[in-house]
Structure formats: C-alpha cells, structure tokens
Design a protein that fits this description.
The protein is of the alpha+beta class. It folds into two domains: 5-231, P-loop containing nucleotide triphosphate hydrolases (Rossmann fold); 239-344, OB fold (Dihydrolipoamide Acetyltransferase, E2P), CATH 2.40.50.140. It is built from eight helices and 20 strands. The protein has helices spanning 45-53, 95-105, 110-123, 139-151, 169-186, 197-203, 221-226, 231-236; strands spanning 5-16, 19-30, 34-38, 60-65, 68-69, 80-83, 157-161, 189-194, 206-211, 214-219, 241-249, 252-255, 258-261, 271-277, 283-285, 292-301, 306-311, 316-321, 330-334, 341-344. A hairpin with a 4-residue loop joins strand 17 and strand 18 (316-321). The two termini are 32 Å apart. The model has no long low-confidence stretch (mean pLDDT 93). It catalyses: ATP + H2O + polyamine-[polyamine-binding protein]Side 1 = ADP + phosphate + polyamineSide 2 + [polyamine-binding protein]Side 1.
C-alpha cells in the first residue's frame, strides 16, 4: 500500500431492503488529494460520502482511516468534517458564532478561538464579517461560511456534498477556483461529490466515475476525458461520437468500413470494439481527398465553435470546429491516430 493513503474503502457494500446501492466499492484516497465522486443521480456517490463521514453504516466492508477500521466510530469522533448542499448554518447566530461553534465545544480559550476565526475568515475572503447575521449574506457568502466552519476545526479530511449546487453559474465557477485554492493552501484532503462533469474536470486531482452503485473508472481528469474505459464514461464525460468497429491488429482499427491508424494495442485480432472520437478532434477536410465523407445536416453556432452534424454512409458525426461548413455541403473528415480511442465492448 502507498504510504500517503489516508482512506481506503474495501469491499464497501450497501443494501436498502432489496435495493443494492453500492456493489463492493474499492478505492483509496491520498493525503492532500482533491478526489471527486462523479456520476448521475442515484449512482451511489452521496451514499459513499455519507459512509465515509459515518452518517450511514455499510451493510458490509471496511473504511480504513490511517490504518484503522473506523466503521464503528461515530461521525463526531472522526477527524472528518462535512459541508452539505444545504449549508445548515445557525440562523440565530452571527457569522463569528457559527464558525466558532465547534471550537467552543472543544473548550478552547477565547483568544485562540478569536484568532482561528479571524484567520479562517481571511482565507475565505470574508474578513470583517464576524458580526454579520447569516440572513444578511448572499448564497455564495453563506457557502463560504459553511466551509470556514468546517475548516476551522482543522479536519484531516473535508467531505463536500454538491456544495455549489444552489449557486448561479457565474458564482459556481468562481467558487470552484476558490475551493481548489483553499484545498491547496491548507493541504487538506477533499472528497467532493458532484454530477457536474465540468466541475469535476476543473477541480479534481482524481475522479471516481460511478454508475448504478459501481465504479466505472478511476483516473486523473485528463485520463478520464481522453481515455474513457467504456461507453458510459465516454458519454457522461463531455460529448462523444461512439461507433462500432473492429481492431485488426495493434495500431490498426476499422470503422465505417475504412481502415485507420490508431495508438491502441493489446486487443485480440479481429476483436469487435467501440471507437470514441471527441467532436473537437474531427477535422473538416476537402471532400475529394478525405477517407471519411459526409453531408452537413445542421449547423449551430456555440460561441467558441460551430457544432455540425455530418451524415456519412453509416453514422451521424458530431463535429466541433471553428471552420463552418454550410448545411447540405459535402465535406471530408479526418482524425489523428492519437485521437481515436478504442474501448472494449461491455458484454
């Protein structure tokens, strides 16, 4: 086992009556890592987070925290704090008392509490807000207070359950950067739950993609985006063209009855596979010279690029390009070998 692992989930299984919510989940989290549990509603990501925090008990399995199984340790005794989507701030207390709540329970000195609250408010860019009422704060400010209240207790791990879900788009993007900066500066392990792919790609060191109570893929944002393990990951993370193909030998793949060079190897000869090509990786070429040919069915301006649907003999390709080809025009398409991603078919 790696020395810097802080939490290790081993065969974590959770069942409600006849419903399997988690099916033997196995993964680990490193110290000072920003790890995101990503997936659609009902995939098991929040249940996983709640089990780590101690708010749910697994049906079976172990949660190893720094070498010790903490399954039977209650939430308040774990060196873990949680920030929920609903911030759960105390409306009858001002900002100072909300943040100081946990410190007062620990019976720290008044001077120590004041110093800690002042420092954490500075970190979340809310210096001078000590005496403000919670109800006078904006959604983004309340979210920062909730984070400050969790961080002031100096947990080893912070759990965040879709904490940006209630914010508008602009504020969400600002807070994504702020959260990442806070995590880096404090060196605390963050475990983050979201269904937002862009949020996961922007903030994470590691992403755990989940579906139907199972892990589909674990990797860096670049790995998850560029090398999806299966069709679910390819569709869920960004936009994809997924077409059936055959890999004839190492580095040679066929789709649309055309042979292409690729960079994949290790498949059986003549194995039926799925090919993933991202829309931005398709290049519009001269119709006569290209291997792939098609007719432009629709064009939509998306701001930074045009989105075109191009119909070939056997497939409808989605293409993102700064070059616009008009509707009904005939175009060629090309793709570099490294942008052709070969995946095993899910049986």
């Amino acid at each position: 086992m790696e020395k810097n692992i802080i939490i290790d989930l081993k065969n974590v299984y959770k069942k409600y009556d006849d419903l399997e919510v988690l099916k033997n989940i196995n993964f680990y989290i490193r110290k000072n890592e920003f790890l995101t549990l990503l997936g659609p509603s009902g995939c098991g990501k929040t249940t996983t987070l709640r089990i780590i925090g101690g708010f749910e008990q697994p049906t079976s399995g172990e949660i190893i925290f720094e070498g010790k199984n903490i399954i039977n340790i209650p939430p308040y005794e774990r060196p873990i704090n949680t920030v929920f989507q609903k911030y759960a701030l105390f409306p009858h207390m001002n900002v100072f008392d909300n943040i100081a709540f946990g410190l007062k329970i620990k019976k720290l000195s008044k001077k120590t509490i004041e110093e800690k609250v002042k420092n954490i408010l500075k970190m979340v860019n809310l210096s001078g807000f000590e005496n403000r009422s919670i109800e006078s704060l904006s959604g983004g400010q309340q979210q920062r207070i909730a984070i400050a209240r969790a961080l002031v207790n100096e947990p080893k791990v912070l759990l965040l359950d879709e904490p940006l879900g209630a914010l508008d788009l602009k504020l969400r993007k600002e807070m994504q950067m702020e959260l990442k900066n806070i995590q880096k500066s404090l060196g605390i392990t963050f475990i983050y739950v979201t269904h937002d792919q862009e949020e996961a790609l922007t903030m994470s060191d590691t992403i755990v993609v989940m579906d139907s109570g199972e892990i589909q893929q674990i990797g860096t944002p670049v790995d998850i985006y560029n090398e999806p393990k299966n069709a679910f990951v390819a569709k869920f993370i960004g936009e994809s063209n997924i077409i059936e193909g055959i890999i004839h030998e190492d580095f040679v793949v066929e789709f649309e009855n055309i042979m292409f060079d690729c960079v994949d190897r290790g498949f059986e000869k003549k194995e039926e596979i799925d090919v993933v090509i991202r829309p931005e990786d398709l290049i519009i070429e001269n119709f006569e010279e290209a291997k792939l040919k098609g007719k432009v069915i629709s064009v939509t301006f998306k701001g930074v690029h045009y989105e075109m649907l191009i119909e070939s003999d056997n497939f409808l390709w989605k293409v993102h390009s700064t070059t616009m080809a008009p509707v009904n025009s005939l175009v060629g398409l090309s793709v570099l070998p490294e942008n052709i991603h070969v995946m095993k078919k899910v049986r």
